[in-house]
Design goal:
Elements (H helix, E strand, L loop, with lengths): L11 E5 L7 H13 L3 E4 L14 H13 L3 E6 L16 H5 L3 E4 L4 H11 L3 E3 L12 H11 L5 E4 L8 E11 H7 L12 E7 L3 H13 L8 E8 L12 H8 L7 E2 L13 E3 L2 E6 L4 E5 L3
Parallel strand pairs: 1-2, 1-3, 3-4, 4-5, 7-8, 8-9, 9-10
Antiparallel strand pairs: 5-11, 6-13, 7-12, 12-13
Helix pairs in contact: 7-8
InterPro entries: Carboxypeptidase_A_C_sf (IPR027461), Class_I_gatase-like (IPR029062), LdcA_N (IPR027478), Peptidase_S66_N (IPR040449), Peptidase_S66C (IPR040921), S66_fam (IPR003507)
Organism: Pontibacter fetidus
Family: Belongs to the peptidase S66 family.
């Protein structure tokens, strides 16, 4: 996997909305944060326009992302919001120049489609991290500080409290993943997640339990867990109980689907659609150590 150059003070960085429209006030606050990091933010043409729920037309959003990828002065590209929309434009984006001059792509949720494309097709790392739209709930220091550390190449490691359903073990492999529903939508496309020999991160928001079960079962039937080295489960936010209920927690749904495998599993990693969204470098090698006392995740980027 190729890791793009880490950022340095004074670098120009692009801000785009390839999916849903983002409220301008959150963009303004995001710009202030980047300036505090001594970066020079450049707003794309998808910042401001609106077409339905999207940040402008498909063509505008595609062209905006393309221009940011091709601009040699832009050292990273930040998505402002998830929702839906990247898969409508990604197949028309040309990555020829990016392949030879990669830069960090940052975002989560719908950006999962872009992350899995970068790792699967271009063997290039990217960052799942907090976005401008998250500022609706205020500035979360832990989320933003972890993103800054990931972007500037500082040592990145996490320790997570034990969960009763964790499966102990040690694995070292490339980290891939994102939002479960988006990963399922990407199956069979060029952006399909590659899990063989890798560690997978999964999180989800706003789904019913039966849908969570169906997503995981679908991934199992597609062979996504067959040669997996480890699994990190992030925040399972606002997962709704069914009527009649399944009689399981969201974590138990995972374990029922994964009972035939023996790779280590960590539950409760603070990343995803919750109050804290710790940055993860997809495409980087990580060491996952799950014990009865704690889970540690160390990124091998130094």
């Amino acid at each position: 996997m190729v890791l793009p150059p880490f950022l340095q003070a004074g670098d120009k960085v692009g801000i785009v909305s390839t999916s849903n429209y983002t409220v301008q006030a959150y963009i303004d606050e995001f710009v202030r944060i980047l300036k505090d990091w001594d970066l020079k933010p450049v707003l794309g043409k998808s910042i401001g326009p609106r077409k339905g729920s999207f940040a402008g037309s498909d063509a505008l959003r595609k062209n905006d992302l393309q221009q940011m990828l091709d601009n040699d002065e832009i050292k990273a590209v930040f998505e402002t919001m998830g929702g839906y929309g990247i898969m409508k434009v990604l197949e028309k984006v040309n990555f020829n120049k990016f392949k030879y001059a990669p830069k960090w792509i940052v975002g989560y949720s719908d950006t999962t489609f872009l992350h899995t494309h970068l790792q699967g097709i271009l063997s290039t790392a990217s960052i799942q991290g907090t976005m401008a739209a998250d500022l609706e709930d205020g500035y979360k220091k832990a989320s933003w500080e972890s993103l800054r550390k990931a972007l500037f190449g500082e040592k990145l490691s996490y320790t997570v409290k034990p969960h009763p359903l964790n499966r102990v073990g040690i694995a070292e492999a490339v980290l891939v993943g994102g939002t479960i529903s988006v990963i399922c939508n990407a199956k069979g496309t060029m952006s399909d997640v590659k899990t063989n020999g890798n560690i997978l991160f999964l999180e989800e928001v706003g789904e019913h339990q039966y849908r969570l079960d169906s997503y995981l079962t679908s991934l199992k039937l597609a062979g996504k867990f067959e040669y997996l080295r480890g699994l990190i489960v992030g925040q399972l936010t606002d997962i709704k109980e069914d009527d009649p209920p399944l009689g399981k927690t969201s974590e138990q749904i995972f374990m029922d689907v994964l009972k035939d495998y023996d790779f280590p599993i960590c539950f409760g990693f603070p990343a995803g659609h919750g109050n804290v969204n710790k940055a993860l470098i997809f495409g980087a090698t990580v060491q996952l150590t799950v014990t009865t006392k704690a889970t540690t995740i160390e990124f091998k980027t130094q």
